[in-house]
Design goal:
Blueprint: H1 7-33, H2 41-55, E1 63-64, H3 66-82, H4 91-94, E2 98-108, H5 111-119, H6 122-129, E3 135-143, E4 146-156
Parallel strand pairs: 1-3
Antiparallel strand pairs: 2-4, 3-4
Length: 158
């Protein structure tokens, strides 16, 4: 004996299944393309402001690299968790394939304010505008309304 499924029920079930599959595909794609595609709005703000500062002065924009983002995010998270600002003591071993490597770390109420502070600090500004750097990774964590950021700069060996 066979049972016929009403067409209206079958169409609804198919639509629900399709919608579920699209949501799952979006979630899986987000995980697979992280970290750069999974960048937070705060990280994107830092990247945009940093590259605007460079290109506005005729300096080529830095290219975001997933490996550098991973190092930067780990440092931002460590600082936020410890509620303490400090440079990554393992930066030169955490970053691979570098000829020149550097780091900016900071915290403040917003990405815009922290970036402005970086640009008013000779050392931080020098990293942002250094023509020798070609790549960057940015990690930002917001905890209790405070944005913690690490910017990792690199010129690769090759």
């Amino acid at each position: 004996m066979t049972t016929a499924v009403p067409t209206q029920f079958a169409n609804r079930a198919l639509a629900a299944l399709t919608a579920t599959m699209l949501v799952l595909a979006a979630l899986v794609t987000g995980v697979i393309t992280a970290p750069t595609a999974g960048a937070s709005t705060v990280e994107n703000t830092f990247a945009a402001k940093l590259n605007h500062a460079r290109t506005h002065r005729g300096i080529p924009a830095l290219h975001l690299r997933p490996g550098l983002v991973k190092v930067a995010r780990a440092q931002a998270l460590r600082m936020a968790t410890q509620d303490r600002l400090y440079h990554n003591p393992n930066l030169v071993s955490d970053v691979k394939n570098w000829r020149i490597v550097g780091e900016n770390v900071g915290y403040g109420p917003t990405a815009k304010i922290v970036h402005r502070a970086f640009m008013h600090s000779p050392e931080h500004k020098a990293n942002i505008l250094d023509r020798d750097y070609t790549q960057v990774g940015i990690g930002a964590v917001t905890v209790n309304g405070r944005v913690w950021v690490a910017e990792v700069f690199r010129r690769p060996m090759k």
